[in-house]
Design a protein that fits this description.
DNA-binding; two-stranded parallel ribbon
Length: 109
DNA sequence: CTCGTGACTCCCG
DNA sequence: TCGGGAGCCACGA
């Protein structure tokens, strides 16, 4: 296995594994990418990703189960995409991880 | 090499 | 309940 790939590539690879109708936190993504504690870089990686159109970035939310994006910069888009996949939000526009939280098997990586 | 920035997360009061 | 602050690291210039 090579780890020569950039952090961004690794993050993208993990995000692509998120099944439809499920969501994951940045911290979770970072941990699966082999970089626990670097949740911040995950968000940056997704933002800087040129292949974001090929990545279900909308399935990534913060540890509160809410969208981190500002309303004027994709919030509504992510919200709509998640809803189109069957994800439901409560009155606070937050997602219940008990229902939509993604938990990858240890065999995934 | 250093500096600034950021779609995060946790601890405290 | 709610907000502020600090720590973390990657990338570009």
């Amino acid at each position: 296995m090579k780890k020569a790939i950039n952090f961004r590539e690794q993050v993208c690879a993990v995000v692509r594994k998120i099944p439809r109708g499920r969501v994951a936190t940045y911290g979770q993504i970072a941990a699966m990418a082999g970089a626990p504690g670097r949740a911040r870089q995950v968000g940056w990686a997704l933002h800087g990703s040129s292949e974001k159109e090929d990545i279900p970035w909308h399935r990534v939310v913060n540890y509160k189960g809410k969208i981190s994006l500002p309303k004027h910069n994709g919030y509504e888009v992510q919200l709509a995409l998640l809803k189109s996949e069957g994800v439901r939000f409560d009155e606070q526009e937050s997602i219940s991880f008990d229902v939509f939280g993604w938990q990858a098997n240890a065999k995934e990586l």
